[in-house]
Amino acid sequence: MLLTLMVLTAAQVSAFPSKELKTLWDIPLSHVNSHTAKVYNREGIHVEEVYYQSRSYQGEPVKIFGYFCFPAGARHKLPAILLVHGGGGSAHLGRTLDWARRGYAVLTIDLPGRGDQRWCSRSTGPDMDVPNLLLTKTNLQDNYLVHAVAAARNGITYLTQRKEVDPERIGMVGLSWGGVITLLTNGQDKRLKTAINVFGAGYIPEGCTWQDRFNVKTHEELARWYSYLDPKNFLKTQHASILFITGTNDHCYYLPTFQKSYDEVTVPKKLVLIPNLRHRFLPYMQRIAWNWLDNKLKYGGSFPEAKLLPVFEKGESKLIVPVIANAASYVTKATLYYTQGEPSRWTKRYWESIDGHFEDGIYYFGIPKSLIRPEMMFYVSVKDNHGSVTSTPIRSIFKVKMFRGEETYAVSSPIQQINIHEPPLQLLGFIKNLEFPKVFFSKETKSYHLVLPDLKS
């Protein structure tokens, strides 16, 4: 059912002009009214509890609450960070203080309204509940994401108005729905210098925890979601460099849609995949985020690089996965993570690791063919001496039946759909990658089948 809906809505999306998309999201950016409700000092950090105006909701004014913190006694303009929480969250002073101690001016906000899990929110506006987040009726201006992005963009305006902030060095970090809001904001707002998306993705109806809700929407409602609300509309217009972080087992935004979103972004970007992680933001992930922000907003520098080279066979029982890995200083570790089984059940997989053999600038990972049952999905993560991490996108190695029934091994392009591998494919034993339309997994034969193009057309 879901695949059919995707095909139908994709055809309808082009019927909506981009002017209407811009009108839905557009807000004034020149000035935002604000006031400070409380001022105090916490362990050398200046703290203000602030409110600023945001987009009106159903004719009523909206005020957004936030903690604005920076190191007390700072003498120069500071780089700034806007922190945006996920569903059920709110502004957290302790986390704000942690980030401010690193030499940043930090604004952490309560997204609009309250909701079933947000009784402590101090902001007004629509409630942050799933029906409002997925609203696809004709009154799209009432969808929660529209108001959440307005709150974020007005928060950027607030930061530009603060004398402590360098307006040329503003970054944004969002978790879960906050990651979705980050994609939507960075796709529209040129004032960000960098961004970090944790867990968020576009193409949400193609794989998410709210699948049952999308499955009962009409074709028209799905078309409105895809045309106006889904982050996919702003992936190619991301303005600032962006870091994508997720767990391999995230149950909210499935890995295929996360990778599909990452692939479409054209600005400088990096990917970090955490093995066996579900929907949690752990301390060592925060260190990776800090390194990214320090690189982009303070000191310069770069994250490590990881590039997959063509896979090849070695003897009768092994495949070799070669990866070029380097860093500005030096690489401390390169690890291949893999999982076996059919290409589904993304949230319930178990990922294991293989260490590589380093020689002449290349890490070689030996894969026993016995692990490929019926396929083995894998990626490689590279860590440098500063704790920064970069991952290759997840691909699959699998057996495929060829034209006359013979079998060989294939390496997929980065996985972007469930049970389907898109071209191009690397077929072991062939000189170049092949551009067949698709390779489908058959649950009956437990194998992939190459689909030939229609040579008559």
Can you describe this structure?
This protein is α+β, with helices and mostly antiparallel strands. The chain has 2 domains: 2-299, 3-Layer(aba) Sandwich (Rossmann fold), CATH 3.40.50.1820; 305-450, Immunoglobulin-like (Sandwich), CATH 2.60.40. Helices cover 23% and strands 33% of the residues. It is built from 10 helices and 24 strands. It has helices spanning 2-13, 18-25, 93-100, 130-133, 144-161, 177-186, 211-215, 219-229, 255-264, 283-299, and strands spanning 34-42, 45-57, 60-71, 78-84, 105-109, 165-175, 194-198, 241-247, 269-274, 305-308, 312-314, 318-326, 331-340, 352-355, 357-359, 362-368, 375-384, 389-391, 395-401, 407-411, 420-421, 426-427, 439-442, 447-450. Strands 13, 14, 17, 18, 19, 20, 21, 22, 23 and 24 form a 10-stranded mixed sheet that branches. Strands 1-2-3-5-4-6-7-8-9 form a 9-stranded mixed sheet, sandwiched between helices. Strands 10, 11, 12, 15 and 16 form a 5-stranded antiparallel sheet that branches. Helix 1 (2-13) crosses helix 8 (219-229). It is globular. The two termini are 28 Å apart.
